[in-house]
Design a protein that fits this description.
Number of strands: 15
Organism: Sporothrix bragantina
Mean pLDDT: 92
Keywords: Signal
Distance between the termini: 64 Å
CATH class: Mainly Beta
Number of domains: 1
Radius of gyration: 18 Å
InterPro entries: Cellobiose_DH-like_cyt (IPR015920)
Strand content: 35-45%
Helix content: 10-25%
Bound molecules: protoporphyrin IX containing FE
Order of helices and strands: HEEEEEEEEEEEEEEEH
Protein name: Cellobiose dehydrogenase-like cytochrome domain-containing protein
Number of helices: 2
Low-confidence stretches: 1-19
CATH topology: Immunoglobulin-like
CATH architecture: Sandwich
Pfam family, one: CDH-cyt
Structural class: mainly beta
C-alpha cells in the first residue's frame, strides 16, 4: 500500500510539470521595448519571442524573435514546432560584425535546406555583435503557422504554452557570409515549454517600426 501511494504521488507530480509549468519567463527588453517570453539554455543562449496582443490562434500572425548567443557558439537554432523536422527553423550565426539569419526546414536528420515559408526582417535595434555575444532581433511571418494538407497544419496559440526546441554547435558554419551555408550537426539539442501568453505586445506594430 505504501508503495502504491508513493507511485501515485510521482505520477501526480509528473502530470503537474507537463501540464502547468513553463520553462520560460517574461523578459522586457529595454533596448527594443518588446516584451518577450524567454528561455535561456545551459549554454547561456537566450531564445525570446514577442507576439502582437491582437494575435489569434490559427492566424499566421507576425512574431518577433530575438536570439542572444555567446560568441563561442558557431550557430544556434530555434525550432518553432519543438522538433527538428517539418517546422520552421530559425538559424543564426555571426559573420564578423554582422549577424546572419537563415530560414530552414528539415525533412530528415540532415542539413536543413532553405525554407521560404518563413520570411524574416532583421530589426536594426537589437541586432549586434560584441566581444561576448551576438544577438539578432527579427520579425518573422510564417513562424507561427506552417504545414500543408499532407503534413497537417500546425499553429502556435499566442495565448497558451507550446513546446519549442533548440540546437547549437560550437563549430562555425562553412560560409558565414552566405545564409544558405551548410553547417555541421549540433553539439546539443533540447526541448522546453514556452509560455507565449506573457509575450503579448499591445503596441507591437509601433515597436517594430521604431526598431527598423
Ligand atoms: C547539419 C545539420 C543537422 C544534422 C546533420 C542533424 C542531425 C540530427 C540527428 C541525427 C538527430 C538525432 C535523431 C535521433 O536520434 O532520433 C537530430 C535530432 C534533433 N535535431 Fe538535428 N540535425 C541538424 C540540424 C538541426 C537544426 C538546425 C536544428 C534546429 C533547431 C535541429 C534540431 C534537432 C532536434 C530538436 C532534435 C531532437 C529530435 C527532435 O526533437 O526532432 N537539428 N538531428
Amino acid at each position: 500500500m505504501r508503495g502504491f501511494l508513493a507511485t501515485l504521488g510521482t505520477v501526480a507530480a509528473l502530470a503537474g510539470s507537463v501540464l502547468g509549468q513553463s520553462d520560460s519567463t517574461k523578459y522586457v527588453d529595454a533596448e527594443t521595448g518588446f516584451t518577450f517570453s524567454q528561455y535561456v539554455n545551459d549554454k547561456g543562449i537566450a531564445f525570446r519571442v514577442a507576439v502582437p496582443a491582437t494575435a489569434k490562434a490559427n492566424d499566421n500572425y507576425e512574431a518577433v524573435v530575438q536570439i542572444a548567443v555567446p560568441i563561442s557558439v558557431g550557430w544556434a537554432g530555434l525550432a518553432w514546432g519543438g522538433s527538428m523536422t517539418y517546422n520552421p527553423l530559425t538559424i543564426v550565426w555571426a559573420n564578423g560584425k554582422d549577424v546572419v539569419v537563415s530560414s530552414r526546414m528539415a525533412y530528415g536528420y540532415f542539413v536543413p535546406p532553405a525554407y521560404d515559408g518563413a520570411v524574416y526582417k532583421v530589426l536594426k535595434t537589437g541586432t549586434h555583435v560584441n566581444a561576448t555575444h551576438y544577438q539578432v532581433t527579427a520579425t518573422c511571418v510564417g513562424c507561427t503557422l506552417w504545414g500543408d494538407t499532407d503534413t497537417g497544419i500546425t499553429a502556435i496559440d499566442p495565448t497558451a504554452q507550446g513546446t519549442l526546441a533548440f540546437a547549437y554547435a560550437a563549430a562555425p558554419v562553412t560560409a558565414p557570409a552566405n545564409n544558405a551555408s551548410t553547417f555541421s550537426i549540433h553539439d546539443l539539442i533540447g526541448h522546453w515549454i514556452h509560455d507565449f501568453s506573457v509575450a503579448s505586445n499591445a503596441d507591437f506594430n509601433a515597436t517594430v517600426a521604431k526598431n527598423q
